[in-house]
Specification:
Length: 136
């Protein structure tokens, strides 16, 4: 299954976010302690973003074959924008973790790591796509 339309991508993003929020509110939060809850939701969010990157296809992109493991977007510019936004969020979360009392720093530290991993994924993808575009 490939998601190629803007409408489909919006439905995936909003629906996936809503599903993770509902799972957390109604199930995960009630079954595990707060620290494990944060870790589970972080893993679900990273998996949801990577699944979207594997499923989305841009105009003119091969829709039959799977993307290479490193490819996150159809064009470099999208990945640079997303990667930059995620890097800013990672920085803000890191500052929040460092500025918090030790007992309150776990959530922003997990957010920092999650955002940093996703930023690296998107930025690496765009760098490699740009390199492919400029190859002789």
């Amino acid at each position: 299954m490939r998601i190629t339309t803007i409408t489909g991508k919006i439905i995936y993003i909003v629906g996936g976010f809503g599903l993770i929020l509902a799972l957390n509110f109604f199930i995960i939060d009630r079954l595990v302690n707060a620290a494990l809850d944060v870790l589970i939701v972080a893993v679900l969010n990273v998996a949801y973003v990577i699944l979207g990157a594997r499923t989305f296809r841009g105009e003119g992109e091969n829709r039959e074959d799977p993307r290479p493991w490193w490819r996150a977007t159809a064009r470099p510019a999208a990945g640079f924008w997303l990667g930059a936004a995620l890097a800013v969020l990672a920085f803000i979360s890191c500052v929040g973790a460092l500025a918090s009392k030790p007992e309150n720093s776990f959530v922003p530290a997990v957010a920092c790591i999650s955002y940093a991993l996703l930023a690296a994924f998107y930025l690496n993808s765009s760098y490699r796509l740009r390199t492919l575009d400029t190859a002789p």
